[in-house]
């Protein structure tokens, strides 16, 4: 076991046993992932006037008293509407050791539904960042952007990753690892800024399908139902018409896919940077965690590509086939996980190409 690195599944379980993680009910059987923990919604949601951070001098509940508009019970299921901001206390609370910090991200399925989520802590000055030694509750800001959603206590929209120290790979480390393991299937990988570039595939599948654009004014989506919804009711397919480009309309939501297959070896974890102003005025990939074993051949992941949740801002923007749209950064694991993403866990998105969230059939 290394003194620094991302905590694997067995150490996340140990945090619960030691009281560093607590919850009012037992963990779900599949809640601990190879390098992360799914976070569960609590019993109520608070509709608030605007997003906020508590800041160093305040707790979240103190800000909620001033900013909340309505309290909603989630028992039995409740609808969260698009364009609204909600704060939901999470079931899980923390009492982290002094040498363990954490970061959070939306789950893959959350990002593919265009649900914007961010974790907050008491006295927090940043979203999705939990300082080493933090002790206190966790809250989730939830804002459905495209589809209204149904949630209930125990619904899992976000995930948390724990780490000791700084295990981020340098550009030199990334280059060496790529030589040994082939992190992205590219002849000449673009490695800079501490990450390895991914580009967009706009040639598409054999039938020319390159992605999907979300429809407006749809029905609600229950986040806990798998394979329950018909694709045409929520998505418009996009096809390659021979131009090799795609114009992103402002504030429309798209599901696209990377040109390169992605590989995360068992001893590493990866994260996609959500937005790079150097490549265009758009945001890529809300859900940034890639667990150990993603795209790993031994776990059934040969050819796994990164599905990209894309939203343009302010102005129309033209994407062209092969254009760089984001970067993967890699971190070392503190130890190998017991289970790898993929075959060990029957993971939803192992071996994927272009794929919508698990809610669609």
Which short descriptors sum up this protein?
mainly beta; Deoxyuridine 5'-Triphosphate Nucleotidohydrolase, Chain A; 6-stranded antiparallel β-sheet; 9% helix; globular
Describe the structure.
By secondary structure, the protein is mainly beta. It has 4 helices and 26 strands. A hairpin with a 2-residue loop joins β14 and β15. The longest helix has 11 residues. The chain is globular, with a radius of gyration of 20 Å.
Counting DSSP H or I runs of 4 or more residues, the number of helices is: 4
Low-confidence stretches: none
Which structural class do you get from the secondary structure elements?
mainly beta
Indicate the proportion of strand residues. 35-45%
Largest sheet: 6 strands, antiparallel
Radius of gyration: 20 Å
CATH class label of the largest domain: Mainly Beta
Secondary structure: helix percent: under 10%
In round numbers, the mean pLDDT is 91
Gross morphology is globular
Q: Distance between termini? A: 41 Å
Number of domains: 2
Short summary:
The protein is mainly beta and 361 residues long. The chain contains 4 helices and 26 strands. The strands form 6 sheets. Strands 2, 4, 5, 7, 9 and 11 form a 6-stranded antiparallel beta sheet that branches. Strands 1, 3, 8, 10 and 13 form a 5-stranded antiparallel beta sheet that branches. The protein has a 5-stranded antiparallel beta sheet with strand order 14-15-26-21-23, with helices on one face.
